[in-house]
Amino acid sequence: MKTSTHLTALALLASCAASTQAAVYFQEDFNNKVTQELTDAGWRFDKNEFAREKGTDFGIANSPFDSVNFPAGKPSSADFRDANELRIFGPADANGINTAPGDREGAGFLFSDSDVADGSDDIGTKSEFFAITTPFSTKGGGRPWFHADTAYLANNNGECVADFSVSVDGGETWIPFYQSAEPQRAIKGYNRSISAEPDYNGAEILGGTWPVLGSGSLTKSWLGLHGRVHFQLPEEAANKDDVRIRVRYFEPADAWWIALDNIVVDDSPAPAGNTVVLSENFEQGIPSS
């Protein structure tokens, strides 16, 4: 009888565990994949009519990461190495470790390198380079989250905008859920607007003058990203039949690079600990401690 009761308890636990599993809407690890293969599967790697930089196009970087295996040829980021002389341009996981080392057979990741490209699509060019996932459904689960191992390196004297957006209407309109501008954008946009085109708003793509918070994007940054990132998608992306994610450079202007790996869209929130180590609302000002 004890055995029967024990087995029943285990069955109930297993049933509960199954019922709380995340609904996975989309995932891609890019391993053993090439750009054309993903294009054939429904991905879109493209640029608009204003794009002029030669080599910024998104594509899949494949091991062993030499010039013939990169969308734009040998990446400028190949010059960045760690203490063991291993390249560190690849996407980083939650521990900051490269998810696609060049010595791992079959490793691959999504990549765009503006810095290695010829030319510079500066402010005012309206240049765009982007990658768009295949359409997927978010029906039958909770509000979706985007997770990815990431190395988005923002240029300290650059002026481009990089953003992650979602569409629920076949790509007709896009809702940003992460946007980042390089530090020179505000300065160069301001100088352009007062000296060349009085009506030009150098920050228009982000919704107005700097900094803009609380718009369609949940997160805005002057910096880059390194490690596994977690972004909750806007409410509009929940319970939809046709959802697509777009990764984009806008007016890249010799930006550095974007690398993404192990993309998952599900209904699991960002991981969080159980212990509060610091809590301060500053209602009484800055505490003496």
List keywords for this structure.
289 residues, alpha+beta, 3 helices
Q: What does this protein look like?
A:
- This protein is α+β, with helices and mostly antiparallel strands.
- It is 13% helix and 26% strand.
- It is built from three helices and twelve strands.
- The strands form two sheets. It has a six-stranded mixed beta sheet, sandwiched between helices.
- The longest helix has 18 residues.
- The N terminus is likely disordered.
| Main beta sheet strand tally, sense and closure | 6 strands, mixed
Helix segment count?
3
Indicate the mean pLDDT.
78
In the sheet with the most strands, the strands line up as: 2-5-11-7-8-9
Q: Give the % helix.
A: 10-25%
What would the principal axes of the Cα set say about the shape?
A: globular
Q: What oligomeric state best describes the polypeptide chains here?
A: single chain
